[in-house]
Write a structure and sequence with these properties.
Layout: H1 17-32, H2 41-70, E1 74-78, E2 82-85, H3 88-94, H4 98-107, H5 112-118, E3 122-124, H6 128-143, E4 147-152, E5 160-164, E6 167-171, E7 184-195, E8 198-200, E9 208-210, E10 213-225, E11 232-242, H7 244-252, H8 256-269, H9 284-308, H10 315-318, E12 319-324, H11 331-342, H12 347-357, E13 358-361, E14 372-374, H13 375-381, H14 383-402, E15 414-415, E16 418-420, H15 421-427, E17 431-434, H16 437-445, H17 449-454, E18 459-461, H18 468-474, H19 477-487, H20 508-533, E19 542-547, H21 556-572, E20 581-586, H22 594-611, E21 620-623, H23 630-636, E22 642-645, H24 657-663, E23 667-670, H25 676-683, E24 689-690, H26 695-704, H27 708-714, H28 716-727, H29 739-747, H30 753-772, H31 774-787, H32 793-805
Parallel strand pairs: 1-4, 1-12, 4-11, 12-13, 13-17, 17-18, 19-20, 19-22, 20-21, 22-23, 23-24
Antiparallel strand pairs: 2-3, 5-6, 7-10, 8-9, 10-11, 14-16, 15-16
Helix pairs in contact: 1-2, 1-4, 2-5, 3-18, 6-32, 7-8, 9-11, 11-12, 11-14, 13-14, 20-31, 21-22, 21-28, 21-30, 27-28, 27-30
The structure holds pyridoxal-5'-phosphate.
């Protein structure tokens, strides 16, 4: 840095409001090209973002220097999705520049909060899996792991959801329509990525591959500042560009259309995020996306290693690669291919090196969500990789046989004409992890049972976590201020310190202030909820939220049936002093998921009916603000009183929404599923509302031949609600509209909504009663906050570093 004459402040966060203001003014003029009088909100936002980014760049260089000087083991997190959200406020808070930024902007006559809200969400992910990757990036910088995230720079992130007459409509998302101030384009960091073609005899023993088409992967780097800016990692996203030479050759031949073809393929690859959550897309373009970003990342990793090290056998000592789900599972075959075909290693040596570096996180046990590719398709798009997969499978079969296992134990990678990506990822990984204690146990007992018997040390658990910077410090200023006064701010980097709140749960004055913070969040939320969903939220109302992707296993339908039954009960007994509730639903359905979209329409139809009914006015309202995303989560979570985590037990791998809500003092109503089990273990049975069948009971009920009709017949409330939906009570213009839902509930009910309904109803009435003892409720809420520090993603990252990556943490 010295050589370019930059003076580097020792503490990059130390900048006065006056200095920052001057820098913002300079960026406005010289980076944006606009004067103060003509500047729009977005111009000011970009100018401030550049001024903040300036404070990150030097610590970024310094981090790289420290990693290089110590030759630290590097951790590469490969994820098809990063659900990041907004970056400005997060960067400002991480650098400790909140008051400086506010003051600087106020001095320029601009409202800082309006600027923050002007930033579009970076929505390069669908839901939990992508948000986990974003939390892990933040935590890798917070604890000082030499980490780097790899993904795809989609031109269009997750679609924008709106409602048209209550039906979900999707619009293209356009986050790059304005300049994205946080990234640096790195045209020099680019790799050609091939597809198709043929495999001939070559230097290595796997044969040399001659791809038919090639695109260029170009890197875009975003610095990821950790807490207090003391460590800054990188998120490297790949964008696909056409190959120049190819274009030119076709052009010179006068083949103008042919010249455009590679451009079309190239730009298609990183154009759009697949909007499916929990159901893989068996489409060729998806496979190309997966290979595209994985291949570019692996080449980048090898290149960085080889700049400093000679012996490839040392790769596992210097490199840990984490595969977030199976989407990058082709990393195994690709790494082997590069080692064999381009470096001349023998297959077995290459396999051992690859397996020494790779680790795989499983996110689901739902059979339909496990990724498989037709072998024919894989062979067409990646012919060389299919051959390598066959060799990996043969080696795996030999290991199985040597261990005395039957050859037909269902653990083959190739079977029924398909490549099972979960099995491939398992076989080529040193460690495989589940994301909650229950999920890991179920992995060992069910889907990965055979592989677990063969490699009993391989499956380990790392329960998910969430970053306390965004999900408490950033989103909940009233509670942050109270915590600061009560226990200081050490909890931001060490969330276990929230335990110091435990004794304060019995302090009436503290509880009052805690309740006041929750109330302040609701008051802050109310105008937005009124505008978005036409709902009046009084601060004394119980705010009940279910915010997450729409999927039948998450059972928004169970919540809705309870809403209908509650509406009926209130109408039938108006004299009762009912606990007033606002039920909030938020979430998107995959555009092709018909049942989930029908459930969205039903919620909107029920909401209209209930909200228009004077008989329940002030007692029950249903809100469904459209376009749930990270920013909406940040608004709703601090205000929530009740967190709905009601999936069919055994099907939610972990959940992270459950952690965010508990950490912000919402009590959970939930099944013993995913991390709910561990939340209960920590907050205590008396501070959470658990109901319903356990995973074992679900399996047993199914094995016995579950018949929902009997459950409906046994519950008059449920029967009435189902009958109302069936008879068009909520859809008088089209009484048959919800027939598919009703038929499924009465006939099949794969997710056991009816079996759990009565237990859920009873628990909800216990919640109504508990809400009336506000001192006791608040005591429970305080204990939830106090005892959920363990759900920090810092704890999760330390666990991965120690038990999986064998990598150091700086802090
Ligand atoms: C945390 C989060 C999720 C995951 O929620 P779950 O309830 O764990 O499914 C999904 N989407 C967004 C925007 C989130 O912030």
């Amino acid at each position: 840095m010295d050589e370019v004459g930059l003076t580097v402040p020792p503490d990059a966060g130390a900048v006065s409001a006056a200095e920052l203001r001057e820098r913002v003014g300079q960026h406005l003029v010289f980076s944006i090209g606009r004067g103060a009088t003509a500047a729009r909100l977005a111009d000011w936002r970009l100018a401030l973002s550049y001024a903040i980014r300036d404070r990150i760049v030097v610590p970024w260089f310094q981090t790289a220097e420290r990693i290089n000087a110590a030759d630290r083991k590097r951790v590469y997190y490969l994820s098809m999705e990063f659900l990041i959200g907004r970056l400005l406020d997060d960067a400002v808070a991480n650098l400790g520049l909140e008051s400086a930024a506010r003051e600087a902007m106020a001095g320029l006559g601009v409202d800082y909060d309006a600027l923050v809200r002007d930033e579009p969400d970076a929505a390069l992910g669908n839901g939990g899996l992508g948000r986990l990757a974003a939390c892990f990036l933040d935590s890798m910088s917070a604890v000082g792991v030499a980490g780097l995230g790899y993904g795809i720079r989609y031109d269009h992130g997750l679609f924008r959801q709106s409602f048209e007459a209550g039906w979900q409509a999707e619009e293209a998302e356009d986050w790059l329509a304005q300049p994205h101030p946080w990234e640096f384009e790195r045209p020099e960091a680019s790799f050609p990525i091939g597809f198709g073609g043929s495999v001939g005899p070559g230097a290595g023993d796997a044969g040399a591959w001659h791809p038919a088409e090639t695109v260029i992967a170009v890197a875009y780097d975003t610095p990821v500042p950790g807490w207090q800016g003391r460590w800054v990692n990188t998120l490297r996203l790949w964008s696909a560009k056409p190959t120049r030479e190819f274009e030119l050759q076709a052009f010179n031949r006068g083949d103008f259309l042919g010249a455009a073809t590679p451009a079309v393929l190239a730009e298609t690859i990183s154009r759009v995020l697949y909007p499916d959550d929990s159901t893989p897309q068996g489409r060729e373009l998806r496979l190309k996306q997966e290979y595209f970003f994985t291949a570019a990342s692996i080449r980048d990793i090898l290149q960085r290693f080889e700049r400093r090290h000679g012996d490839l056998a040392a790769l596992p000592d210097k490199v840990a690669i984490q595969l977030n789900d199976t989407h990058p599972a082709i990393a195994g075959p690709e790494l082997i291919r590069l080692l064999v075909d381009e470096r001349g290693l023998a297959f077995d040596a290459a396999f051992d090196i690859a397996r020494g570096c790779l680790h795989y996180t499983n996110h689901t046990l739902l059979p339909e969500a496990l990724e498989r590719w037709p072998a024919e398709l894989l062979g067409r798009v990646l012919p060389c990789h299919l051959e390598i997969v066959e060799r990996i499978d043969a080696r795996h079969a030999r290991e199985s046989a040597a261990a005395g296992r039957p050859s037909d134990d269902g653990t083959a990678i190739l079977g029924d004409g398909e490549v099972r990506m979960g099995t491939l990822a398992f076989v080529a990984a040193r460690r495989v992890n589940g994301v909650s204690a229950l999920h890991t146990r179920l992995m060992q007992e069910t889907v990965f049972g055979g592989l677990h018997a063969l490699h009993p040390e391989r499956i380990v658990n790392q329960t998910n976590g969430v970053t306390p910077r965004r999900w408490l410090h950033g989103c909940n200023p009233p509670l942050r201020a109270l915590l600061q006064e009560a226990i200081g701010d050490g909890w931001v980097a060490d969330l276990d310190r929230l335990e110091a709140l435990v004794p304060l749960a019995d302090d009436a004055a503290f509880r009052e202030r805690f309740a006041a913070a929750k109330r302040a969040n609701k008051v802050r939320l109310a105008p937005w909820l009124a505008e978005q969903a036409g709902i009046e939220l009084a601060p004394e109302t119980l705010l009940d939220v279910q915010i997450k992707r729409f999927h039948e296993y998450k059972r928004q339908l169970l919540n809705l049936l309870e809403t209908v039954a509650l509406w009926n009960a209130m109408r039938q007994a108006p004299e009762v002093d009912w606990t007033p509730r606002v039920k909030v639903f938020g979430g998107k359905a995959a555009p092709g998921y018909r049942m989930a979209k029908l459930i969205i329409k039903l919620i909107n139809d029920v909401a209209r009916t209930v909200n228009d009914d004077p008989a329940v006015r002030g007692r029950l309202q249903v809100a469904f603000p459209p376009n749930y995303n990270v920013s909406m989560a940040e608004r709703l979570i601090p205000a929530a009183d009740l967190s709905e985590q009601i999936s069919t037990a055994g099907l939610e791998a972990s959940g992270t929404g459950n952690m965010k809500l508990a950490l912000n003092g919402a009590l959970t109503v939930g099944t013993l599923d995913g991390a709910n089990v561990e939340i209960r273990d920590r907050v205590g049975e008396e501070n959470i509302f658990i109901f319903g069948l356990t995973a074992e009971e679900v399996a047993r009920r199914r094995a016995e031949g579950y018949a929902p009709a009997a459950c409906i017949a046994a519950s008059p409330r449920l029967a009435e609600a189902v009958e109302q939906i069936a008879s068009g009570r909520f859809s008088p213009d089209e009484p048959e509209r919800f027939r598919a839902i009703v038929e499924d509930l009465r006939g099949h009910d794969r997710f056991l909504v009816c079996a759990d309904f009565e237990a859920y109803w009873q628990r909800q009435r216990a919640i109504d009663a508990a809400w009336r003892d506000r001192a006791a409720w608040t005591r429970s809420a305080v204990l939830n906050v106090a005892r959920c520090g363990w759900f920090s993603s810092d704890r999760a990252i330390r666990g991965y570093a120690k038990e999986i990556w064998n990598a150091e943490t700086e802090f």
